[in-house]
Amino acid sequence: MSEERSAPVARRRPPALRREREELPSMSLLEHLEELRNRLMWVIGALGLAFFVCWWKVEAIFEFLAKPAYRYLPKGQKLVILSVTDAFMLYIKVALLAALFAAAPVILYHLWRFIQPGLYSRERYYTLGFIVSGSLLFLAGGAFAYYVAFPFSVEFLLEMGRNFTPAITGPSYLSFLMTVILGLALMFELPLVIVFLARVGLVTPRFLLRNFRWAVLVIFVAAAIITPTSDVFNLCLFAVPTLGLYLLGVAAAAVVGRAKKRAEAEAEAEEDAEAAYS
């Protein structure tokens, strides 16, 4: 009787013989470069296709982008060009900016496919979540810049020059607008970056909270670079939402970390059960 009870214990595999961890596929430097080239070709193709679609409506897109300026300029006054080529080059940049937002899901997909070989199989199931959340955050950052941050900046700057007659050139206006929109769109990707780094084990929520003061410094420096003015209000308008996104990313990383530990515990329990009855 005692032999029958001890039999399963005797047949249990020692920890060293349990299921080995999944080995990641190895790639040579040339294979990495080839993969990078292929992904870049897909991204360039997607951007090119989106560019031609946006070029078809480029004047309407520019009118939409110029509304924050027209709101504060004298009625009937338009942006100025100083060269015969300014309008053409400006429209190219407008179409590229719109194409970048239109092709964001494709760009994020190929970015994920490029880093996918360095992930475990259980981490590759997050493809759809990465693409959808990354695209939504990128669009949300652009929308926040266009509807909130940029109009406040334009109003502040034009109010500072109320003693002068404004003659704003289209290229300078678009350059200013692109800096704000692209800067905030990228800063809105912060939660996704934090969750990804936490998921692969490079950072932990506790580490991020412990170094929060350094995150505040880096975010305010980045906001100072993007912010077109030096006043505190506009600086905070850029930095405070980013701090909120940082904390949102930490909270999401904590949730993902708990789910990861629970999944690992369940996998370990399954391995123990399989070893006990094999």
What's the SSE pattern?
A: HHHHHHHHHHH
The description of the largest β-sheet is: none
State the total count of DSSP E strands. Answer: 0
Q: Ends: how far apart?
A: 20 Å
Q: Which radius of gyration do the C-alpha atoms yield? A: 26 Å
Strand content: under 5%
Low-pLDDT windows of residues: 1-20
Compact summary:
The protein is mostly helical. The protein contains eleven helices and no strands.
Notes on the structure:
With 278 residues, the protein is mostly helical. The protein contains eleven helices and no strands. The longest helix has 46 residues. The radius of gyration is 26 Å and the shape is globular. It starts with a helix and ends with a helix.
Features:
278 residues, mainly alpha
Helix-strand layout with pairing:
Layout (H helix, E strand, L loop, with lengths): L1 H10 L17 H28 L1 H13 L15 H17 L1 H12 L11 H34 L9 H18 L2 H10 L5 H6 L1 H15 L5 H46 L1
Helix pairs in contact: 2-4, 2-5, 3-4, 4-7, 5-6, 6-7, 8-11, 10-11
